[in-house]
Amino acid sequence: MTVPSVERRTAVITGVSGQDGSYLAELLLDKGYIVHGLSRNAASCSSPNLASLMAVGAGRLFLHSCDVMDHTSVCSLLRRVRPQEVYNLAAQSHVAMSYKQPELTAAVSGLGVVNLLEAIQEAGLGDTTRFFEASSCEIFGRASRAPVDENSAKHPQTPYGKAKLLGYLAVKHYREACGMYACSGILFNHESPRRGKSFVTRKITMAVVNIKLGKEERLSLGNLDAQRDWGHAREYVYCMWLMLQQQIPADYVIGSGVNTSVRQFVEMAFERVGMSIWWEGSSNGVGNHGIINRGSHMGKTVVTVCIDFFRPIEGEMVADTSKACTELGWQRTTSLRQLVNEMVDHDMALASTAV
């Protein structure tokens, strides 16, 4: 497959208005790409991420209101713009929400991948377009060993994980049976100041800032001892790009290789605003709570546990990224503390300027 120079490439990004989509669009624009972004709300440009992108990508960024499940519209767009690269970042990506909307999750995060791959073939681009799928560590489920790598057993336990496994298997099929350049990045949790407000990391940083400013009393969370492998989204989208620059397509695990508890994330966020807390009550039960242990608010309870936020099944995995590091030359450089500090500082700036 002959690939044009970076400066002359055209890329399509689904889910461009999200955290990953906006970082990836910025990266590609910086490399000289023409970028076509697909989003269900692109026409209104209501996303802050989209608003900032439009200023950066004037003349080379084009936004389209399009659903990945709309086969006709996707085919039409692909025929028109003839991209060398397609990045599928569109998904119902909230694991907790997948329990409440399993059908939507299966359709968008699973069948949506099949629809895109079929559309590429139907548009006559199967031999020229490279495809990236944003898969998830949730496809591993309760991993039998840690850390997990590309060959680890895949037994998803959540509706989201099962939908993502369908997408992952579809990519593998089109690569092996149809000869397409198609690959999956098996992404562990990745965060940033652009993370949606419904995700636990952003929920924490916003609440900590509001507690510091006296705008909020308490932060309510689920299992404080749940472990996550967290990294910075900006670094993960760079790995996505690297995956489509290789001679041979392959799947890669992308993560930090470090597990951290929700409890530790909370502690780091409070430390960033000059507050520290101690914990009382049972380990991770509803009686556990965090109390400020110094300053004018000493003794005040600021973190509580709510059983409603516990997941039915809690998996704890950590990534083995040796393949990505060796074959792609990718490295994680941002520590979790640096990431937490960046998110808290961002939310502090927003809260301080809010009317």
Secondary structure elements and their pairing?
Blueprint: E1 10-14, H1 19-30, E2 34-39, H2 48-56, E3 61-65, H3 71-81, E4 85-88, H4 95-100, H5 102-122, E5 130-136, H6 159-178, E6 181-187, E7 190-191, H7 200-212, E8 219-221, E9 227-228, E10 231-232, H8 233-243, E11 252-254, E12 260-261, H9 262-272, E13 277-280, E14 289-292, E15 301-305, H10 322-328, H11 336-353
Parallel strand pairs: 1-2, 1-4, 2-3, 4-5, 5-6, 6-11, 7-10, 8-15
Antiparallel strand pairs: 9-12, 13-14, 14-15
Helix pairs in contact: 1-2, 1-8, 3-5, 5-6, 7-9, 7-11, 9-11
Largest beta sheet: strand ordering = 3-2-1-4-5-6-11
Give the % helix. 25-40%
Beta fraction of the residues? 15-25%
> What shape does the CA trace take?
globular
Q: What is the number of beta strands? A: 15
Radius of gyration: 21 Å
Distance between the termini: 54 Å
**How many helices in DSSP terms?**
11
Cofactor: NADP(+)
GO molecular function: GDP-mannose 4,6-dehydratase activity
Organism: Coccomyxa viridis
Pfam family, one: GDP_Man_Dehyd
